[in-house]
C-alpha cells in the first residue's frame, strides 16, 4: 500500500476538508491506497468514507498507540517491581 503525506490534526472527531482532500488525492493519483493518521478520532462520516473507498485506511489515536506498542516504535519499556507477601514471615515458630 502506498501512502501520501498528510498533516497532523489534533482536533477531536477529525473529518475535515483535509481528510476529504486526502481521499480525493488518493483517487486522482491512482495510488493503490493511502493511510491517514490522527492522534484523536474520526467521525462516523470519515469511517463511512473509509468503508466505501476501500483504498484508504484511517488510523486514530488509540489504534496508533496500539500499533506503536505492538511494533516497539517510539516507546520505552520499563520494569516494575511487584510486591508480594512473604508467607514465611507469618509462619508460627
What's a quick, concise take on this entry?
With 93 residues, this protein is mostly helical.
Can you tell me about this structure?
The protein has helices at residues 17-28, 44-53, 61-71, and strands spanning 34-37, 56-59. It is mainly alpha-helical and 93 residues long. The chain has one domain (1-74). The longest helix has 12 residues, at 17-28. Mean pLDDT is 81; it is low at 1-5.
Helicity range: 25-40%
Shape: rod-shaped
Give start-end ranges of low-pLDDT stretches.
Answer: 1-5
Report Rg.
22 Å
Q: What's the overall average pLDDT, rounded?
A: 81
Structural class: mainly alpha
Oligomer state of the chains in this structure: single chain
The overall number of domains is 1
Number of helices: 3
Order of helices and strands: HEHEH
What's the β-strand tally?
A: 2
Q: Kindly estimate the percentage of residues that lie in beta strands according to DSSP.
A: 5-15%
Strand order of the largest sheet: 1-2
Distance between the termini: 69 Å
Amino acid at each position: 500500500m502506498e501512502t501520501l503525506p498528510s498533516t497532523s490534526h489534533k482536533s477531536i472527531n477529525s473529518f475535515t476538508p483535509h481528510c476529504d482532500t486526502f481521499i480525493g488525492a488518493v483517487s486522482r493519483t491512482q495510488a493503490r491506497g493511502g493511510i491517514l493518521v490522527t492522534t484523536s478520532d474520526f467521525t462516523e462520516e470519515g469511517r463511512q468514507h473509509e468503508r466505501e473507498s476501500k483504498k484508504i485506511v484511517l488510523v486514530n489515536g488509540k489504534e496508533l498507540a496500539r500499533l506503536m506498542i505492538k511494533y516497539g516504535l517510539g516507546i520505552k519499556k520499563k520494569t516494575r517491581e511487584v510486591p508480594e507477601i512473604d508467607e514465611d514471615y507469618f509462619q508460627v515458630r
